[in-house]
């Protein structure tokens, strides 16, 4: 009985993720406002009732997408900590790797989805509060890496870990918003890497590192 219940939970989660993935595909193809719930359900091979079982509206797909992204950040973070190919990186270099990964993941849904998502997060108070909650996985990951940077004596003593976290968060959001404003007119990874390098150099304790 318990196995059947677990199997149903997995199937429901897979269906929810499929609906989310199909919705993002359609947002990229047609735009967020031109995509209907009916079209999402059809693409996901689900009924309208099936869509509304998992999501109250198109907007709710954004909230779920954010939760999925946080899980992906955690997976990448764990990989950085355990995969031998990352073992040579110091804390600052790991911060850069995570920042670039986060920006690429946010932008992977396309500029239309990123633009509408940010707009929704700003206007919906409950979601905004969730976004800035420091119990979020994103904040926990960055706090850990910043504190590691402090332990490795890489970050200037006069910079509080909380302030560095705020700067990083603002920088990531700024990069994504600018990419949206410029309608995906440049390589996000190349631009992101250059901007992050400048920022991280600015917080280094010993500039020659």
The ordered H/E elements are HHHHHHHHHH
Give the CATH superfamily of the largest domain: Tetracycline Repressor, domain 2
Rg over CA atoms: 19 Å
What are the low-pLDDT stretches, counting only 5+ consecutive residues below 50? none
Which quaternary structure do these chains form? Answer: single chain
CATH topology of the largest domain: Tetracycline Repressor, domain 2
Beta-strand residue fraction: under 5%
Helix content: over 70%
Shape: globular
Number of helices: 10
Largest sheet: none
Q: Kindly report how far apart the N and C termini lie.
A: 58 Å
In short:
With 209 residues, the protein is mostly helical. Helix content is 76%, strand content 0%.
Keywords, separated by commas or semicolons:
single chain, 209 residues, mainly alpha, Arc Repressor Mutant, subunit A, Tetracycline Repressor, domain 2, 2 domains
Protein architecture, described:
The chain is mainly α. It has two domains: 1-55, Orthogonal Bundle (Arc Repressor Mutant, subunit A), CATH 1.10.10; 58-203, Tetracycline Repressor, domain 2 (Orthogonal Bundle). 76% of the residues lie in helices and 0% in strands. The protein is built from ten helices and no strands. The protein is globular. The model has no long low-confidence stretch (mean pLDDT 91).
List the helices and strands and how they pair.
Elements: H1 2-30, H2 37-43, H3 48-54, H4 58-82, H5 91-107, H6 111-123, H7 125-132, H8 137-151, H9 161-181, H10 188-203
